[in-house]
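note to self: dont lose this again. the chain is below, predicted strucutre after it. 525 aa total, dont forget to put it in the shared folder this time
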Amino acid sequence: SFCQMTCQCRDSGSLFDLSTFNVPTLELQLAPVSGQVTRIVLDTLPLANMHDEILQCNSVEFMSLQNCRLLKKLPLMMDNFPQLKFLYLDNCPLIVTLPNTLVECQGMLELKANHCSLEKIPDIFENMLKLQRLELSHNRLARLPPSASNLTSMTVLDLSHNQLEAVCKGVSMWSSLTDMKLHNNQLTRLPRGVGALSVYLNLKSLTLTSNPVEMPPKYIQNMGQTHVLQYLARLWRAQSSMGVDMISMGITDIRPEFLELKYLEQLYLGKNDIKEIPSDIKGLTNLRELNLADNKIEELPNELFALVNLNVLQLSNNRIKRLSARIAALVDLQWLSLENNPLQTLPLDISECKAIDLLQVSPFGLQTDIREVMKDGPQALFAYLANFKTYKRTKKADLSWKPNFLWSKLVVFPAQLFTTCTNLVDLNLNDNSLEILPNGISKLSSLTTISAARNKLRQVSFELLNLSKLKNLDLSENKPLKEPPASLVDTKSSLAHCLSFLSSLKASVNDGIFELDHLPMGHFE
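---
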């Protein structure tokens, strides 16, 4: 009967089909016709091995061995089928791998091995550039081999119901893919390339359910698959753009998948719900632009200031109360945005950031002197603050205005003195436009000399009385001065007269009695 079938094969010249016969064992003798057979169908037969006679059919283009439940493996010499285009192995539960020699089947169009026991696929896809359909569902695969990225003609991929912990690198190379099934696996990280295939290329159908996915995070997953794919696509673009743009993506933290991209130069995370900057951000040493505006950040970690290549740092519309002196390390910073944060002051060390040409800080809440000097630009502010670093060391503050100063004449008392120079001995404020020596001046308890000549002083604080070490006071040429009168402080004994006047005036406020007996009456109108 086999001889008769062989003759039938010779007559048809193409088909060798035993799938409809109930044959317990096969002894094939096809040598005389092997060169003419292009299709072999052995479905449902109790084959344990493929016989040598079949291997001689080197013109085979179509081979189906579906439901051969005793078949343990394909022959090692699959390179005998260089014309093979279709290979169907569904429901062969004893097959655990495929032979390496399949790599020679360069014309393969479809490969199906669903419901087998495949544990590993060897690197067979290097030359299968024409493969259009790959179905490997319901197996035990942990990942695809690296050469799978070469399957640029593939339109359908089914890897569902496996044990995949990863797919493979280069998923975005599957530019023709329209249908992809990855559900029911062990994927903790979805491939970034999947987002690219969906958002930028041709992927229309995608199933990802029943995976223990950690990346993207759950809160992104809960926003729906479209949002997940956008998230993945933006991560994928980082490879070519050197930046990650996650503005308005509903992110609540700076994700590990951002921080592992050590090559990043731009990281845009504005308009999200981020509350904290992780210390691991220090690893992004190539970062040049960091946008964290419109979040809920309260503190800036020291590690942020290790990003010494930063040119742009946007932190507006957060809840930041304090800017660290470590900002001085960012010597290449050109744009610093701190608008709409509850900052009250800026650190003196910001004066080291001389490259800044755009400084955005909301004036509301800031110390008045800083607010005024900022009107003259960032370089004026930095020059102004730099002086205080010197004053802190020398205990002498010379703020007498000179034409070469970058900032305009002071109109308010320099509040920086109260926070940075409390040990000050000598204070020179001559030639400004101050109107008041304010309450709080007694905090400078070490002062021995105050010079505030040629200003626009209208009054001085009672707290001068508390400066027990004060020996020299020059308030001359302040014509608007009323308390004490200008005529009083323009005398050689102005310190004594001034303090006596203030003492009496303070007493009158407290007791309703103003004693003038000890003052020269010529000083009063």
